[in-house]
Amino acid sequence: MDALEILFTASFWVAAIRIASPLIFATMGELICERAGVLNLGIEGIMTAGAFAGWFTVYSGGDLWAGLLVAALFGAMFGLLHATLTVPLGLSQHVVGIGVTLLATSLTYFIYRLALPEVTSPPKIEPFQPLPIPGLSSIPVVGEALFTQTPLTYLAFMSVAAVAWILYRTPIGLAVRAAGENPSAVEAQGISVTGIRMGAVVIGSALMAVGGAFLTTSAFNSFFFQMINGRGWICIALVVFGSWRPGKALIGAILFAAFDAYQVRLQQISGGIVPYQVFLMMPYALSILALILVARRAAYPRALMIPYQKGER
Do 26 and 211 touch, CB atoms closer than 8 A? Predict the structure, then answer.
């Protein structure tokens, strides 16, 4: 099989959609935060905490959906911490975000070692299984790629539709967008900018944690250190790539995942002639290139990263 034929195989697109799923959850979460005017750099740590919380809940005897709920609650708690420090207190969103990432990551590893002090290899759980959709899953290539995934992948795509509908079709979505564009106009309507921004960060962080939990309850069957591996930072780039729009961000997530799946297969057919580090670098290099081309024309929320205090004009 040559390099071009890979792009037309069902297995390639099945892998690409699976790789994209956690990115979709976390990107939607980051997009909600930034649309409200808050840059959440805690995403890497929040995804790590969500991955561990979801896995550990199932490992302790809970079911898979309970694991997702616990992961979302953990993400919401870290989001509340981030929001409290950055929104009403007006602290630097960059510094707080990095601090949340360090706190969430370190706390996760501490709890892991405390709960499993003598474990040498990560314990395994029974993850979500693929759920083929009758009729649709039999469509060549497309059916196998889109309709033979686990329930969480379907939920990831549904989250994109839900976020788009809420942002552009509901009053609360209008308030969120206005909080990121012109917070004084939100206040003039008698709506709390602080409440809108804090709520957006809490909900967005819960989605980020679900993205992390996808890795331990659907993509893999255990938790191990460094499993997030920069996915949070990629999601921040995907929000910019998508011009802060859910549909475009979804396309960006699938493209990055396709690059990632493609480099794995290129390694297999290269026969070791090219160093594997070159292939590992490919998705990130192509993402940076795409970001450079798109970011120049992106219309970012005008109040992004700008603290707002009641009564300001």
Answer: yes
Residue 49 corresponds to which tokens in the numbers above? 């905490």
- Within 8 A by CB and 6+ apart from 83, the residues are 38, 197, 198, 201, 202
pTM: 0.93
Query: Rounded to an integer, what distance in angstroms lies between the CA atom of residue 80 and that of residue 38?
Result: 12
DSSP state of 182: -
Are the C-beta atoms of residues 218 and 128 closer than 8 Å to each other?
A: yes
As a dihedral over the C-alpha atoms of residue 65, residue 251, residue 178, residue 171, rounded to 10 degrees, the angle is -50
CA distance 23 to 123: 24
Paired tokens of 123: 């314990």
What pLDDT is recorded for position 313?
A: 57
Per-residue pLDDT, 70: 97
Cα separation, 198 vs 98, whole angstroms: 18
Q: Which of 32, 73, 33 is nearest to 52 (CA)?
A: 73
How far is it, in rounded angstroms, from Cα 168 to Cα 149? 28
With H, G, I as helix, E, B as strand and everything else as coil, classify residue 6. Answer: helix
Dump pLDDT digits (tens) for 200-220.
Answer: 999 999 999 999 999 999 999
pLDDT digits (tens, 9 = 90+) for 237-293: 999 989 999 999 999 999 999 988 888 777 777 666 666 677 677 777 777 787 777
181, HSE (Cβ side, Cα atoms, 13 Å): 10
